[in-house]
From TrEMBL:
Keywords: Cell membrane, Membrane, Transmembrane, Transmembrane helix. It is a multi-pass membrane protein. GO terms for cellular component: plasma membrane. Residues 5-91 form the DUF3817 domain. Its main location: membrane. NCBIfam families: integ_memb_HG. InterPro entries: DUF3817_TM (IPR023845). Pfam families: DUF3817. The chain crosses the membrane at residues 12-28, 40-61, 67-86. It is found in: Cell membrane. This is DUF3817 domain-containing protein. Coiled coil: none annotated.
């Protein structure tokens, strides 16, 4: 499971940061009429989010998560700052499960 946890953690942070940058780009676009930044950031964030979804599926299948839990983790990448919280909670859960399995 550790091999699936590391990519998930990295992608959760990257997607979280890109979502915050995207929010700034949207403010610039709709608040100030400057669409250049959002034209660049939006597709990058979208692509990274798709990779994040794959990482969640990979980790979820290895950890044998329920589908509702997995969908909740997936949605964590759609709300600013939530991906950081979700990453921390998922990491704690996986590490606890690993420790229990080893004991």
């Amino acid at each position: 499971m550790e091999s699936a946890l590391k990519p998930f953690r990295v992608l959760a942070y990257v997607v979280g940061v890109m979502l915050l940058v995207l929010c700034v780009a949207m403010v610039l676009r709709y608040g100030f009429g400057n669409a250049e930044m959002s034209k660049i950031i939006a597709p990058i964030h979208g692509g990274l989010y798709m990779i994040y979804l794959i990482a969640v599926m990979n980790l979820g299948m290895k950890a044998r998560w329920s589908w509702p839990y997995m969908l909740g983790v997936m949605l964590g990448g759609t709300v600013p700052f939530l991906s950081f919280y979700v990453e921390r909670r998922v990491t704690q859960r996986v590490q606890t499960e690993q420790a229990a399995a080893e004991a």
